[in-house]
């Protein structure tokens, strides 16, 4: 950590990061069914788990699928962390990642392995990877999995996204857990984006309730107060449904739900997380946040330090970002064909593909199958890397 060579892609606190991309996005009128394949975190850890999916809202653009062996690194001195990830499997697609605080205050690691299901008019991505957060100063470890993501109207109509399913954040030191439910949209869209649940002690006693929207904010409140509010709200909701049911028709589920009402704050609640608004130009640049705008930045100093597998060096992504759609499409096809050829060659050889920075093994905290970081990336010894670009 003491030398410049160990920091490599150093982003000093005084550096001004870009606030837009080189060129605006092109028309997405012909988005394919693969549009959802977008690389998809105590009380504050639960909010972190919810915030990790918040940026997906309105991001329905078709992604560039990672190539086997592709890597990405990010060092942010101003934010106090560094990150490395590797595409460790192509079939099924699996991305492994590892991040750590520069002050050694946290370690955040896991894998992204979506299980895809087609449902006629929609496509569902069920995450299979484990996410782990370690807080060494407190001797605490948390694990969880992300909710299911679904994109509607993949054939015709306006695309819209919802997240649903259960998320359980486990504190492996105390036995406490936060059990949350990401609500499905429902017939009239009232439950769209809603999240609610409880933080429980090891004997399953409710310590507090947690509620809000994964696109907006998250609150905690006394569980008795929350339960009383839910009971009252449920009665009111049933009365409204009875009056509207006669006017519902089959087409209602095909349309994106209207903008749902903002979170109704229960008296006595405490705000634990609020989303940072996207910049005014976000709609022009793939619905990116200010942070996402900065991820593909590349300067001369970085080029000399990055491994040849870093995704900033991918020619199809670079030309796409610069607004050259035709060249981006040609480069994408070339890289995919190169990957297929390499896979055929490996099939004739006794040597199978070997990952470089991660290996499979048991998660040390819950013993589930996981991808574990080998702790060698930041040594900057990048010999014998695969030629993927």
Can you walk me through this structure?
- This protein has helices at 4-7, 43-54, 223-244, 290-293, 300-303, 315-321, 325-347, and strands at 71-76, 81-89, 94-101, 107-112, 114-118, 122-127, 131-135, 140-144, 148-152, 160-171, 177-182, 194-200, 206-213, 217-221, 270-274, 358-362, 369-373.
- The protein is α+β, with helices and mostly antiparallel strands and 389 residues long.
- The strands form 2 sheets. The protein has a 15-stranded antiparallel β-sheet that branches.
- A hairpin with a 4-residue loop joins β1 (71-76) and β2 (81-89).
- The longest helix has 23 residues, at 325-347.
- The two termini are 30 Å apart.
Shape: globular
Helix content: 10-25%
Number of strands: 17
Number of helices: 7
| CATH architecture assignment name of the largest domain | Beta Barrel
Total domain units? 2
Query: Per CATH, what is the topology of the largest domain?
Result: Porin
Rg measurement, Å: 22 Å
Terminal-residue CA separation: 30 Å
Task: Return residue spans where pLDDT drops below 50 for at least 5 consecutive residues.
Answer: 1-8, 28-43, 246-253
CATH domain class of the largest domain: Mainly Beta
Q: What summary fits the major beta sheet?
A: 15 strands, antiparallel
Pattern of helices and strands: HHEEEEEEEEEEEEEEHEHHHHEE
Kindly name the structural category: alpha+beta
Tell me the β content. 25-35%
Mean pLDDT: 82
